[in-house]
Amino acid sequence: MSSTQHGPRVIVALDYASAAEALVFAQRLDPARCRVKVGKELFTVAGPALVEQLVGRGFDLFLDLKYHDIPNTVASACKSAAGLGAWMINVHASGGRTMMQAAREALAGLVRPPKLIAVTVLTSLGAEDLRETGQNEAPEVLVERLARLAAASGMDGVVCSAQEAPRLRAACGPDFCLVTPGIRLADAAQDDQKRIVTPQAAIAGGADYLVVGRPITRAADPLAVLDRINADIAAALA
Ligand code: C5P
Q1: What digits encode the pLDDT tens for the residues 162-214?
Q2: How far, in Å, from the CA of 15 to the mean position of ligand 1?
């Protein structure tokens, strides 16, 4: 667990196909009890206006657009994302050191810069997929290599599976921010997540923020599920 994190640890993934659906759902959430994430699907249809509306409602917002391009383009995109009021943004670590450093420099001088996070290896990629792209290291070795590169390039942290969190916490130190999706309550459906971890186990393993989508967005009583996850987190932190 990083020593520098405060506030709600749960980031609710607003994986909706329209601004209207996302806003109706967000109405049921409380910015004091969670943060929110807008990804490529929702941003592609709803754009900056939705981001600004959610930020205007008081939410800390993770703009999950996973930038990966030439350094100048990524730097400009990061600056634009910061201008929308995002609390957290991300880039692909495989874009390389120069790209990540350019992203970091683009945020220098901002009064409240967003947390700048790197994606190491998408959890949808297995060893064979990586081999086909010319990457012959075991996935967990590549993840650690990219996390170390991200840290050395000035990133605030990485997105990783909760199973990788202990290894990356050890590799990258106590202040490196670990953001983990694939969270499920012990008695919940797995959906399409293969390697799931409970909130308590994720926090115990060193995660700072937990990205949770369907267990909350598809719940009959989303706030009740959120409260239960927050209670589990509080127990793990105690
Ligand atoms: O609904 P669920 O809890 O599975 O949602 C998880 C969220 O985290 C989704 O927005 C998904 O895109 C994101 N994510 C993930 N696995 C990764 C990276 C991001 O599930 N490796």
Answers
A1: 999 999 999 999 999 999 999 999 877 778 777 789 999 999 999 999 999 99
A2: 9
Predicted confidence (pLDDT) per residue in 27-56, tens digit? 999 999 999 999 999 999 999 999 999 999
Tokens (6 digits) for 114: 């967003």
The Cα-based distances of 176 to 1, 157, 168, 207 in angstroms read 9, 5, 9, 10
Residue of higher predicted confidence among 235 and 6: 235
The second-level CATH assignment, the architecture, of 10-237 is Alpha-Beta Barrel (3.20)
Closest residue by CA, ligand 1 atom 14: 181
Q: What's the average model confidence in pLDDT over 108-136?
A: 94
Which amino acid type is present at position 130? L
Phi-psi region of 96 (alpha: psi -120 to 50; beta: other; left: phi over 0): left
Backbone angles phi, psi at 47, to 5 degrees: 65, -165
Q: Under a CB-based contact definition with an 8 Å cutoff, are residues 134 and 189 in contact?
A: no
Which of 161, 126, 130, 132 lies closest to 147, judged by CA?
161
Residue 181 Cα to ligand 1 middle (Å): 5
Residue holding tokens 């959890």? 123
In angstroms, rounded to a whole number, what is the distance separating the alpha carbons of residues 138 and 143? 9
Determine the pLDDT at residue 16.
Answer: 97
